[in-house]
Amino acid sequence: MAGGQQDELLLTLRNINELFVPPVLDPLNGQFHSMSGIDQILVKLRPRTLDRTSHLTILLPPDQLDDGLEERCKYATRGFCADRLQAIDLDKAQLNRQGFKELKLGLLFLAICLMVSGSIAAQNWGPELLSTFLIEGVVIVGWIALWHPVDLLLFSRWTLVRDQRVLRHIRAA
Question: Are residues 61 and 123 in the same domain?
Fold first, then answer.
């Protein structure tokens, strides 16, 4: 879809509480999912471009409808999004702390691996093939030690940032 078009999302719930509370999975009685409505919305919006208007329709049984329901849902959704955004900020801060801590250790380990590989190269251990195997192996192990910190500092954040973007979009709706 081009930017500026409207996105139509349809959410069918058995009762309004399922908007925020996951329903009990009960396939024998026709309850095939166990995600709350808001989580279903997040999953549907996550892969989408949010530069267009989104329209959400919630279908409820007639006995669940009452005056003021729409306003209560909007209020609850804004509060939920604000709380989840705050939790994501805390998760990002924790990822940063853990990532930088592990990065320091990973860089130290890489430096040690580079010194060991340099030592192996200088001492000329056995046949050239064995020496090259050891030198390259130690260097690779050192670089592998950096994978988790890089994953924490870069890639793990992407999911959180995407969720923040979606939650801001929902809150502003």
Answer: no
What range defines the domain where residue 28 resides? Answer: 6-65
Q: What is the pTM of this model?
A: 0.72
| 20-29 pLDDT per residue, tens | 999 888 888 8
**Based on the domain organization, do 133 and 166 belong to the same domain?**
yes
159 inside domain? yes
Residues 6, 55 contacting (CB under 8 angstroms) = yes
